Amino acid sequence: MTMSRHSNPTRHSLVEDSQGLLTGTLLVTLSVLLLHGAGLFTGQIAGLSLVLSYVTGWSFGAIFFTLNLPFYWLAFRRMGMRFTIKTVLSVALLSGFTEIFPQLLQFATLHPAASAVLAGVTAGAGLLALFRHGASLGGVGIVALYLQDKTGFKAGRTQILFDCCVFLFALFVLPLDKVLWSLLGAMVLNVIILINHRRDRYIAT
Whole-angstrom Cα distance, residue 11 to residue 127? Predict the structure, then answer.
């Protein structure tokens, strides 16, 4: 059996990418709802956006969308147009979903431990779906890769340093127990990404 010369097994179709981005952003939306409902946060730009939303009273979606704007040029330079477009769409979807879904889905009881763990799991699954389809939620990861290319400073270290800054900032504006539960959720998320995000196991982008 021969393969059509028009087919490309190493690239997702438009339909596959669309469902991947939609699924990924919906899962991360659920994660944000769980965190917000329990007054928790996470790392990266999403975490900073949550903390700022608690401090200012502004919506997470608006803050998250705005904070990501400066990173798109670097995304284009570092990852190309295809990745940048998918990332812009993913950020816009997440920002929009987090504005809409609180009106459709509310939790009567949220223990911070359950919220932290479930938020870490759902965010991890959502991010893996986005990575699998050549997208991200923008932010620090793009800068980290850019600095790694330019200076040799490891991307993982940049992300860790940024997360440390987010948690340090949170210590001054949120109760200590909220920060500690948030740290648990961030650890769950990072473990899921660390174990499962391996490019050598992927066959499509």
Answer: 18
